[in-house]
Amino acid sequence: MGVYLDYNASAPINDKVLEKMISVYKNNIGNADSRTHDFGENARIIVEDARKQVAELLGVKSDEVFFTSGATESNNIAFQGLREYAKKTGKKHIITTAIEHKAVLETAKHLENEGYDIDIVKPDISGRVRAEEVISLVREDTLLVSVMHVNNETGIIQPVKELGDQLEDREVLFHIDATQSCGKLVDEIRDLKYDMLSFSAHKLQGPQGIGALILKKKRYKLPPVKNIMYGGQQEHGIRPGTVPVALVAGCGEACKVAKEDYVKNAEIIKRIKQTVIEELNTSNIKYKINGCSDYCVDSTINICIPSVVSEALMLSTKQYCGISNGSACTSKSYSPSYVLKAMGIPDEDIECSIRISWGADSDLEEVRCGVRNMFEVASQIAQ
Ligand code: PMP
User: Fold this and answer.
1) Nearest-5° angle of CA 137, CA 138, CA 143?
2) Which residue, 352, 366, 382, 338, is CA-closest to 105?
3) Residue 95 · residue 142 · CB < 8 Å
4) To 5 degrees, how large is the angle CA 161–CA 164–CA 167?
């Protein structure tokens, strides 16, 4: 199987996180919302500790953290949860970008079918959308602006800082999908202004199936988001259903570990990127980096190796490394990446593009060896 280089799809669980979860599964039975016994109370304490850990990583208050099953659900709540408010205010215009995750784009499409007006901003060849273009589209009836922090396919950082600053005093809600930056661009996220923010724990070495929606208070009031599922009053009614205590504890622990280690991790991640680029440059292959490197995170590289079809490369190098050519969520059947397409990259280059992504626990020498072997195969295919 070789070395795992698909961290943007899902990162391996951190040992401390796993230990925490096993301990909770073994020692803390019960439902965090049970009032009638200490088992419930103990489970509630674990959930509230985890909420605090998430809040501390993100620089928000604990009562602004709402646990969900992950970023897909958080994004859905951020959009669909505004229906009632949209009806009341008559605001039905939404602005988002062509490179968002499908959890945003498909939800926006769904709302469009219900009569919402959706503007979709395209990036340029750098992989970034222009903040001015987004702002220029804001109207009286704009309900929501939703822009991701870091793109999952290219690793390109979007201008969410500028957008947050400019939208702060306007009557528009601002949502950020921070799934790929949470736990990595820690200082940057703490500095952002937004109303809603989504992430999944598994991208920061927590468990799969848990994440959060951050709802930031303005003048002591939460954004006007309502639940989209009906059931109990868990998570203040925003997300009904039994709170998965061990998953929540794992999410909290992943945030705690990220808070402790992010500065050290950034150095390791950077060194790995340098190594991947060194290996690219010493190999025989011609390559192009997709997106502007100045805006790219250090944990991702998306490259085009002309005349080496990515599907063929991935199949013939499976024994060396696990990489991808797009989002796992759209990879059931091959279709050219809509993210690279929106950037204006020609189809023949998209067909030959791969994404390599890693984390601070990746072994540098294993990565070096895996990519070296892969690039060697690519140079043979290219001949
Ligand atoms: N947004 C982004 C930017 C992502 O990368 C992902 C996962 N690929 C999601 C949302 C959805 O996350 P999940 O599948 O954990 O709900």
Assistant:
1) 130
2) 338
3) yes
4) 150
Q: Are 358 and 7 in contact (CB under 8 A)?
A: yes
Taking alpha carbons only, the member of 97, 92, 104, 78 closest to residue 223 is 78
Residues that are catalytic: 329
- Residue 327 amino acid letter: S
pLDDT greater than 80 at residue 326: no
Tell me which residues have their CB closer than 6 angstroms to ligand 1: 70-72, 101, 103, 148, 152, 177, 179-180, 200, 202, 327, 329
Number of neighbouring beta carbons within 10 Å of residue 125: 11
Q: Does position 332 have pLDDT exceeding 70, yes or no?
A: no
Both structure tokens of 11: 């990162």
DSSP string over 17-39: HHHHHHHHHHH--S-TT--SSHH
Predicted confidence (pLDDT) per residue in 63-119, tens digit = 999 999 999 999 999 999 999 999 999 999 999 999 999 999 999 999 999 999 999
Q: How far apart are CA 13 and CA 23, in angstroms?
A: 15
Rounded to the nearest whole angstrom, what is the distance from the C-alpha of residue 72 to the centroid of ligand 1?
6
| Residue whose pair of structure tokens reads 């930056």 in the numeric block | 181
pLDDT band at 328 (very low <50, low <70, confident <90, very high): low
Measured in Å, residue 196 CA sits from the centre of ligand 1 at: 15
Q: Where are the beta strands (DSSP E) in the chain?
A: 3-4, 65-68, 93-97, 117-121, 142-148, 173-177, 196-200, 211-215, 288-289, 300-304, 321-322, 353-357
166 C-alpha to ligand 1 centroid (Å): 26
Atom 8 of ligand 1, nearest CA residue: 9
Q: What is the pLDDT of residues 119-170, one digit of tens each?
A: 999 999 999 999 999 999 999 999 999 999 999 999 999 999 999 999 999 9
Residue length, the chain?
Answer: 383
Please answer whether residues 48 and 62 qualify as being in contact, where contact means their C-beta atoms are separated by less than 8 angstroms: yes
